[in-house]
Amino acid sequence: MREVCYCGRTGEIEDREPVIDGEGGALRCPNDECGHVDYLLWLSPENRRIVMKEAERRSGLNRSTAA
Ligand SMILES: [Zn+2]
């Protein structure tokens, strides 16, 4: 799924950094100057779970392996 951020970045939605928020998941733009967070209220609960799992997986990674 490709999407366009308002900062002009385009790419796969999976490239964005998943974060967990109170509503159950969001994607943050990897562009540091943007940092736009999209909440995933438009996603189905099933897809939101996938994003949350990815967020948990990434947050569990040791930064030494993330370069
Ligand atoms: Zn952006």
**How far apart lie the N and C ends?**
26 Å
Bound molecules: zinc ion
Poorly predicted sequence stretches spanning 5 or more consecutive residues: none
Tell me, what's the shape?
globular
Number of domains: 1
Measured as a percent range, the helix fraction is: 25-40%
Helix-strand category: alpha+beta
**Fraction of residues in β-strands:** 15-25%
User: Describe the biggest sheet?
Assistant: 3 strands, antiparallel
Order of helices and strands: EEEEEHH
List the total number of helices.
Answer: 2
Question: What integer value in Å does the Rg equal?
Answer: 12 Å
In words, what does this structure look like?
With 67 residues, this protein is of the alpha+beta class. The chain has one domain. The protein contains two helices and five strands. The protein has helices at residues 45-60, 63-66, and strands at residues 2-4, 10-12, 17-19, 26-28, 37-39. The strands form two sheets. A three-stranded antiparallel β-sheet has the order 3-4-5. The protein has a two-stranded antiparallel sheet with strand order 1-2. The longest helix is centred in the last third of the chain and has 16 residues, at 45-60. Zinc ion (ZN) binds next to loops. The site of zinc ion has 7 residues, from loops.
